[in-house]
Amino acid sequence: MYEHGVWRLHFVCRVEVDVADAPGDGVAGIDLGICNLAAVSYGDESVLYPGGALKEDEYYFAKKRAETDDSASREAKRLDRKRTSRRTHFLHTLSKDIVSECVERGVGTIVVGDLSGIREDENGESRNWGTHGNLDLHGWAFDRFTMLLDYKAETEGIEVVTKSERGTSKTCSVCGRSDDNQRVERGLYVCDCGFVGNADANGAENIRRKVLPNLATDGGDRDNGWLAQPAVRLFDRSGGRFAPREQVTGRES
Predict the structure, then answer these.
(1) Sign of CA dihedral 210, 36, 103, 85
(2) Residue 3's CB: how many other CB atoms inside 10 A?
(3) What pLDDT digit, counting tens, does each position of 144-154 carry?
(4) What is the mean pLDDT of the chain?
(5) Organism's domain of life (predicted)?
(6) Cα–Cα distances in angstroms (integers) from residue 99 to residues 91, 233, 248, in the given order
(7) Residue 160: phi, psi to the nearest 5?
(8) How many other C-beta atoms can be found within 10 angstroms of the C-beta atom of residue 45?
(9) Virtual torsion, Cα 195, 111, 103, 201, nearest 10 deg
């Protein structure tokens, strides 16, 4: 590749890596979305990973690229490379943090919601998420994240499987009731059984149960406070890592 008057030669090598034994037999579920790029359920705790930092980058670079006189100019290409690099770093950091958490919690299987049809509705038509939602979906590389998660998890002996997300966002993970009206607003899930919790955490728990078919709902008898008040980990730009909300300055909204 010839860049800025210098030829650069890039090598891609395939190497064998040692695969560790699974850290345990626990199962984690991941719900991928727009506001929270990932919501993770561990069965007794849930963690949200907002995508605010990634969205800010997408809007920033889209605006800067629009200001260039020529979309094929050197400046436009430089902006594209930088945008891709920052997105890749974000996704690498996110997948690494989730795998590290799974190792600590003895998780041997990660279940990820399959978003292959996220841009189409039930009739195969293009789904309209609104101006901002459509831009976000166009920029977010869900497939890229799943690929990074898969190989990082493999080195730790953790299996990653994908399952359909159909019904997981509108089904109560406590009683099993399904109703389009239970997700009353973004981020809030309310069920007639009395359960009130975070909608993304509820979806992640339903995805987790996709590989636990014998795990029956109990009508709300068990403690489900962790679904109502999930932990939040934000991307810390200064350190290039994810950290608990209280440890990150310049928090995402």
Answers:
(1) positive
(2) 11
(3) 899 999 999 99
(4) 82
(5) Archaea
(6) 12, 14, 20
(7) -115, 125
(8) 17
(9) -20
Provide the 10 A C-beta neighbour count for residue 72. Answer: 7
Q: What is the mean pLDDT of residues 152-172?
A: 91
Q: Domain spanning 21-247: which CATH class is it, in words?
A: alpha beta
Q: Could you tell me the two tokens for 249?
A: 């300055």
- DSSP codes joined into one string, 93-157: HHHHHHHHHHHHTTEEEEEEEE-TTTTB-TTSPBP--HHHHHHHHHH--HHHHHHHHHHHHHHTT
Do residues 253 and 236 touch, judged by C-beta distance below 8 A? no
Long-range contacts of range 157-160, CB-CB < 8 Å, 24 or more positions apart?
Answer: 157/19, 157/20, 157/21, 157/22, 157/23, 157/108, 158/22, 158/23, 158/99, 158/102, 158/103, 158/107, 158/108, 158/109, 158/110, 159/22, 159/108, 159/109, 159/110, 160/109, 160/110, 160/112
